[in-house]
Amino acid sequence: MGVGGQLTDTVEAGSGRDAGVFTWEEVHKHCSRKDQWLVINRKVYNITQWTKRHPGGSSVISLYAGEDATEAFTAFHPDLNFVQKFLKPLLIGELAAAEPSQDPNKNVSLEIIFVNEGLRQRKMVCLRRSLCSSASIWVTSCCWSDVTVCAGWLQHDFGHLSVFKKSGWNHLVHKFVIGHLKGASASWWNHLHFRHHSKPNVLDKDPDVNMSGLFVLGAVQPVEYGIKKIKHMPYNHQHQYFFLLAPPLLIPVVFNLQILRTMISRRDWVVRCQPMRRRAL
């Protein structure tokens, strides 16, 4: 969320309901690229104009168009008091009193389990334990002669801002590790990883399970897609061509194309210099 959003939709006159009061059914309708609403703590916001200016990227916030974004909003914004003021220009109303606070499409019983177990609480990882854990991974990876594995886990922890108490140090080390040791873009990783944690394991929304049309996840779906010739590949035989396509395409081709796309779409010209310089060496 942020300042500068402009309201493009208003409540229609003579619609038979009070102005600024909406049902979940109405909210669900506003999920297109040019018309996006979402709900945070029962408040309804029009984010259509704000998505392109969202600091976390338009794709992250757009994942919740037409849905309840309360949990994601809380998880991604540590300083809620600071971002609350940015919501005001986007506010268009609230849910009707008869509407449930939770999106009816959500599993309420599962949500209760998460809350009771304290899994929704934000916790700062102890600096000493994080450093010890990172050190152990480093030593293990070096013994395995695979420093890139270690660098991958290190950049992940720093990217989550979970090592140092001050986020600035986490950002600095994260850019160094992923840029100079992994040869990738910190901005690209953040862009994809934010989407992953926004919609984990949701097909077409979580990039970590997006196989770019080359593979299909699951035990039944690949066979069905292959026999019925759905999409592009003979997915019922993907276990045979996986090792021929995945290793040579994933890092040299797919990841670099994604980095270029992120660089151009988000205009992050500086971060691209790190992987380019490393490959030049």
From TrEMBL:
<dbReference type="GO" id="GO:0062076">
    <property type="term" value="F:acyl-CoA (8-3)-desaturase activity"/>
</dbReference>
<dbReference type="InterPro" id="IPR001199">
    <property type="entry name" value="Cyt_B5-like_heme/steroid-bd"/>
</dbReference>
<feature type="domain" description="Cytochrome b5 heme-binding">
    <location>
        <begin position="19"/>
        <end position="96"/>
    </location>
</feature>
<keyword id="KW-0444">Lipid biosynthesis</keyword>
<protein>
    <recommendedName>
        <fullName>acyl-CoA (8-3)-desaturase</fullName>
        <ecNumber>1.14.19.44</ecNumber>
    </recommendedName>
</protein>
<keyword id="KW-0812">Transmembrane</keyword>
<comment type="similarity">
    <text>Belongs to the fatty acid desaturase type 1 family.</text>
</comment>
<dbReference type="InterPro" id="IPR005804">
    <property type="entry name" value="FA_desaturase_dom"/>
</dbReference>
<keyword id="KW-0275">Fatty acid biosynthesis</keyword>
<dbReference type="InterPro" id="IPR012171">
    <property type="entry name" value="Fatty_acid_desaturase"/>
</dbReference>
<keyword id="KW-1133">Transmembrane helix</keyword>
<dbReference type="Pfam" id="PF00487">
    <property type="entry name" value="FA_desaturase"/>
</dbReference>
<feature type="transmembrane region" description="Helical">
    <location>
        <begin position="241"/>
        <end position="260"/>
    </location>
</feature>
<keyword id="KW-0443">Lipid metabolism</keyword>
<dbReference type="InterPro" id="IPR036400">
    <property type="entry name" value="Cyt_B5-like_heme/steroid_sf"/>
</dbReference>
<dbReference type="GO" id="GO:0006636">
    <property type="term" value="P:unsaturated fatty acid biosynthetic process"/>
</dbReference>
<keyword id="KW-0276">Fatty acid metabolism</keyword>
<comment type="pathway">
    <text>Lipid metabolism; polyunsaturated fatty acid biosynthesis.</text>
</comment>
<dbReference type="GO" id="GO:0016020">
    <property type="term" value="C:membrane"/>
</dbReference>
<dbReference type="Pfam" id="PF00173">
    <property type="entry name" value="Cyt-b5"/>
</dbReference>
<keyword id="KW-0560">Oxidoreductase</keyword>
<keyword id="KW-0472">Membrane</keyword>
